[in-house]
């Protein structure tokens, strides 16, 4: 999923700029690809759709939220069923759309078979270990993380296949490593 670096896709306060939405995507097996800050052309199709949406639904705006919703609904209908798109060989999105054959079955269970233990992140974004509270990130609240002791009192902390950093039980802190989620932006196909 290619996104910009703003909410709800990324969070400036989340660990590695993760947001609750991006954590959910990772749990579903969706790879996150963020554009470089200040380079909206790297997500040109999406930006162009938003420009068109803004021009056609907010100038002028509806007098109230119900009237505004009517404008949005009309835009969606025209965009999907009446307006041909060059990228679709001048067909409308509604002509080429087909529903996924996969049914949503909820989030898959996360397991850590090569770790020593797993631990749940509390609602306030901490893990509790050996009577010590260590701040991780609220965007990971409710998520199970894997822990592997790599040295006496030093633990590697992982979320799914991503190593997040090291916990030093004496200092009660997470020392992050290079962003395991960073990806290079590939050209749009």
Distance between the termini: 13 Å
SSE class = alpha+beta
Number of strands: 9
* Strand coverage percent: 15-25%
The percent of residues in helical segments reads 10-25%
Radius of gyration: 21 Å
Which sheet architecture does the biggest sheet show? 5 strands, antiparallel
Spatial arrangement of strands, main beta sheet:
3-6-7-8-9
Features:
189 residues; 4 helices; alpha+beta; 22% strand; 23% helix
SSE topology:
Layout: E1 2-3, H1 20-27, E2 33-34, H2 44-57, H3 65-81, H4 93-96, E3 117-120, E4 126-129, E5 132-135, E6 144-151, E7 154-159, E8 162-168, E9 173-176
Parallel strand pairs: 1-2
Antiparallel strand pairs: 3-6, 4-5, 6-7, 7-8, 8-9
What does this structure look like?
With about 190 residues, the chain is of the alpha+beta class. Helices cover about 25% and strands about 20% of the residues. A hairpin with a 4-residue loop joins strand 8 and strand 9 (about 175). The longest helix is centred in the middle third of the chain and has 17 residues, at about 65-80. It starts with a strand and ends in a 13-residue tail after the last strand. The mean pLDDT is about 90.
